[in-house]
Design a protein that fits this description.
Helix content is 37%, strand content 18%. It has 28 helices and 26 strands. The strands form seven sheets. It has a seven-stranded mixed beta sheet. The protein has a five-stranded antiparallel beta sheet with strand order 4-3-2-5-6. It is globular.
């Protein structure tokens, strides 16, 4: 490429380049750029250079990887400037196609960035290219170029091409000549270096590096959320992997399949012909599955959509056997299949009225098709994409990572866990295949050398089991003849099965097992034992405490009297007494991301009727932690007698850096609740980090995380119901122990 081919106004470029600011590098960024200096890029630079160029991110990162793979700010500015120059002069906007054609004619030689597709002209026995945005066709391509880049024959690929202009006067010839074609992607396999460098990172650091590589700030995601994001990447690293993700709009379901890898193909609209997807019977040309690692169907959901039954039958055979028949030939392929769609209803509505596959077209809402799905990714667990989620840190140039994952498809870690864990014997072959393929994919992403401890493997195995269980449980709803199976596993040397639940099962047990279990079985199988004391204090009971008390006092209605044998008249329990009767000793653990947990359920029965409460939590410092205290006091207000003063004493640690702010916040809370009869006092203590609640009614509640049990949520938008409804928030992993204290 010559200098005169790529010049734009220097002043404009300089002023724009100066806008590139240097974010503060984290320790992880320093480690990434130190160990992978040649293959990393600052992720916020992609949006800096993209402008209105409608090109995938991997195209932009390919260019940034050539000119801006550095941490030096001046070099980054120069590299960004260079990439902008290339895009400004060489990327073809459709509305400027005639201008670029003119430039090619006037200069005689010009380089463009465009999507190129090739077809065989049988009449002239030659290959001819079509340039999508440049709007030219019949450009002759030599056979070797096609052999080196077979995807040119399918849907086309993004390329940097040097075109010549040579008008011959022959009406059968076009004046365009292809001098050079270079696909925008890496061509070499760097696995050896990649595996060596992986050993320098912890598992947590490596997961964060992968998150930053796909553009997200890992600090804003829980461990579970990160793992689910990695599941989206499994189709790129695992052959013949069948994944479905259904959920609300705006969660980035399709982004990774269109932007992340030159080995992936996103089909918009979700509709495709058998000839395009598998093989054209007329030309014998193999379709998309023969050329791409991943074929993703966007907008796959929609009950009104129609699908060709013949296509569905071929897909079923391919998804089960990795092969397909068209005519008399049987062909094999390795492409993974991803099905992406939006849901029209929330999870409890679907569980109550139908199933979690309800939005699929009728031809795909078929047990035989759905049973071939290896993993159901719960799209409702992904937050809607917000600008603050994106990282300004460093990650792999995506086409570098994509090439690594492409080559790791040759590796299989599906049985690696079997030295330490055994799956339930009730699982079918397809169930086990789904679990093994998901586990293998996660291993290749997080532990690409296959070396991991049992403790490191177990969360991956549980994640893999959960995704297949979600498929199978819904199949049992759709097809009553399908037998339920036990999705559990045992550790080596143990016979005690460890059950795996999906979150919907714990969040909505009465809806999830609709008609499948009786009430006793439901309580035994889905509710953690100590949560009986909390969860059985239902919302209705909480409402009784809040409203029944008012009814009794304000209306002063006569109180019904119960009669026991012997005509002994016993007054009924008050709402507070009814709540207190639910309290039981025990221990409960909550899995990360569970919903439906509230302070009313956790603490209500145990503080009901108390007049002296001591809360010990060293982390009531930051504003959001003080808000947790306020919500705890609201629970105290609900579950105690308003005719008495209730004294709550807080023991916490002083925030040395922002002590004035902390004291001011606590004083405001004190003033507000003292007016309501909740007499708050507090002290600062640096001794110990225990977290507990002690009541004068004889209860000791040991808090694993203190009051800080909820994951981050958007708290600066009053339209967000999570601000007011704790049960809509997802929780961190935590545990609570309920004990009768010595006083009790």
């Amino acid at each position: 490429m010559t200098d005169d081919e790529n010049t734009i106004d220097e002043q404009q470029t300089s002023s724009v380049a100066d806008e590139v600011t240097a974010p503060v590098m984290s320790n992880l960024d320093r480690k990434i750029t130190g160990d992978f200096a040649e293959f990393t890029v600052r992720k916020d630079l992609v949006s800096e250079v993209k402008g209105n160029a409608l090109v995938p991110s991997y195209v932009l990162e390919y260019l940034l990887g050539k000119y801006a793979t550095t941490t030096d700010q001046e070099s980054i500015k120069a590299g960004v400037k260079r990439v902008r120059e290339i895009l400004a002069d060489n990327y073809v906007h459709r509305e400027e196609s005639k201008l670029i054609q003119s430039k090619i004619r006037e200069k005689g030689r010009y380089t463009v960035i465009d999507k190129v597709q090739v077809a065989l002209n049988e009449k002239l026995d030659r290959y001819e290219a079509t340039f999508e945005n440049l709007d030219i066709s019949r450009v002759v391509v030599d056979s070797q170029t096609v052999k080196d880049n077979p995807k040119l024959l399918v849907t086309g690929i993004w390329c940097q091409c040097t075109l010549l202009y040579a008008y011959s006067g022959d009406s059968n010839e076009v004046p365009w000549r292809l001098q050079r074609l270079m696909p925008v992607q890496m061509s070499h396999d760097d696995r050896e270096n990649y595996l060596n460098m992986r050993s320098r990172f912890t598992a947590g650091e490596w997961i964060d590096l992968l998150m930053q590589s796909v553009g997200f700030n890992p600090d804003l995601f829980s461990d579970r959320a990160k793992l689910l994001h990695l599941v989206r990447m499994i189709p790129f690293v695992e052959r013949n992997y069948n994944l479905i993700e259904l959920g609300p709009k705006g969660t980035g379901k399709s982004h990774i399949y269109s932007e992340f890898s030159p080995h992936g193909m996103l089909i918009s609209g979700g509709e495709v012909t058998a000839a395009k997807l598998f093989v054209n019977n007329t030309t014998r040309q193999i379709g998309l599955v023969g050329y791409w690692d991943t074929v993703a169907f966007d907008e796959f959901a929609g009950r009104a959509k129609k699908a060709d039954k013949g296509l569905v039958d071929i897909m079923k055979n391919y998804m089960a056997n990795k092969s397909f028949s068209r005519g008399t030939s049987v062909m094999q392929a390795e492409a993974s299949m991803v099905f992406i769609g939006n849901t029209a209803h929330n999870v409890p509505y679907m569980l109550k009225n139908s199933d979690l596959f309800e939005e699929l077209p009728s031809q795909y809402h078929d047990p035989a098709f759905l049973d071939r799905i290896h993993y159901y990714l719960p799209g409702w667990e992904f937050d809607q994409i917000r600008s603050e989620m994106f990282t300004s840190g460093y990650g792999f140039v995506v086409d570098y990572l994509a090439e690594i994952l492409h080559n790791l498809r040759n590796v299989d870690y599906g049985s690696a866990f079997e030295k330490y864990f055994k799956l339930s014997s009730s699982l079918s072959t397809r169930d086990k295949d789904g679990v093994r393929k998901t586990f293998s994919g996660l291993m290749k992403l997080i532990y690409p050398d296959g070396q991991a401890t049992p403790e490191q493997m177990e969360p991956l195995l549980r994640c893999a089991i959960e995704g297949r269980k979600r498929v199978k449980d819904q199949l049992c709803r759709i097809d009553s003849t399908m037998a339920e199976v036990d999705f559990s596993y045992t550790r080596a040397g143990s016979v005690e099965p460890i059950a795996v639940h999906v979150l919907e099962e714990d969040d909505y047990p009465e809806l999830y097992w609709r008609g499948a279990h009786d009430t006793a079985e439901l309580a035994e199988s889905t509710a953690p034992e100590p949560v009986e004391s909390a969860d059985e204090t239902t919302d209705a009971a909480v409402d009784d405490t809040a409203r029944g008390e008012a009814d009794a006092k304000e209306n002063a209605s006569p109180t019904p009297v119960q009669t026991q044998p012997g005509n002994v008249r016993v007054p009924p329990l008050s709402p507070i007494e009814r709540a207190a009767s639910k309290a039981k000793e025990g221990h409960v653990s909550f899995n990360e991301n569970r919903m439906g947990v509230t302070y009313d359920k956790l603490f209500g029965p145990y503080i009901a009727g108390a007049t002296q409460i001591t809360l010990t939590d060293p982390y009531i410092r930051q504003p959001y932690q003080v808000r947790n205290l306020v919500e705890f006091l609201e629970t105290v207000f609900t579950f105690t007698d308003r005719s008495d003063e209730v004294h709550v004493h807080l023991v916490t640690c002083c925030d040395e850096e922002y002590a004035d702010r902390q004291i001011d916040n606590l004083n405001q809370v004190q003033s507000t609740f003292n007016e309501l009869g909740i007499m708050l006092t507090y002290e600062f203590s640096e001794s110990g980090h225990d977290r507990s609640v002690v009541t004068d009614t004889g209860w000791l509640i040991v808090l694993g995380r203190g009051l800080d049990i909820f994951q981050r949520y958007v708290d600066n938008n009053w339209f967000n119901p999570q601000i007011r409804q704790q049960k809509l928030r997802r929780v961190k992993e935590f545990s609570v122990t309920y004990q009768r204290s010595k006083k009790g």
